[in-house]
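Morning run. Coffee first, then this:
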Amino acid sequence: MADPLHQFEITPIIPLEIAGIDVSFTNSSLWMIISMVVSIVLMMVSIRKPAMIPGRMQVMAEGMYEFIASMVRDNIGSKGREYFPMIFTIFMIVLMGNMLGMIPYSFTYTSHIAVTMGLALSIFIFVTILGFVKHGLHFFSLFCPEGVPLALKPLIIPIEVLSYLIRPVTLSVRLFANMMAGHLMLKVFAGFSVGMGVALGVLPMFFNVALIGFEFLIAFLQAYVFTILSCIYLKDAIELH
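And here it is:
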């Protein structure tokens, strides 16, 4: 049976080292570029010839746009309109990483904690800076909810600070763990199908087919959860709620 962890190995395609730091172009880098190209081409082709009666590609593009726009509108409000490009980009990065990773012999870059943590930290740092820019030192009031009795503030404030600081960890680990676990399970059951032979391998094969469909659903749901949490964090920075 093939090693199920082999699919997560990062291998250099173009080895490169600068000042003793390994900055090689890897399979992870390649699939990030592929996801970017696919996203851009998909959207450009979809809206190249807009029509009053849209075709399938235009319907898909408009549906994607409206889906993210409604997410921003419902969670941030009218003030979130200017942040729509960022939210849309976050959704596409995660969605493409998840979906393209379902292609055989591809690489799921969202199954690596370094990638998801980098993305989560970028959002966390942006949201924190935005909060200070918009509210100054009043941003610290986010850690002391209104109506909290004075006696409880020494307990509530550390909890709120900790819950805020842990956001990039929970945001990144949730995505990384779900994608890694799903792909591991698929590879394990695929190995069972091969190892058990034609007769006995039918059952795990059918189970694996069901898991693939479930994994596509998880891929979309994780992109949705990552994006909607980013919207919620952005709302906190804008409105201090």
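The first strand starts at residue 12 and ends at 14. Good start to the day.
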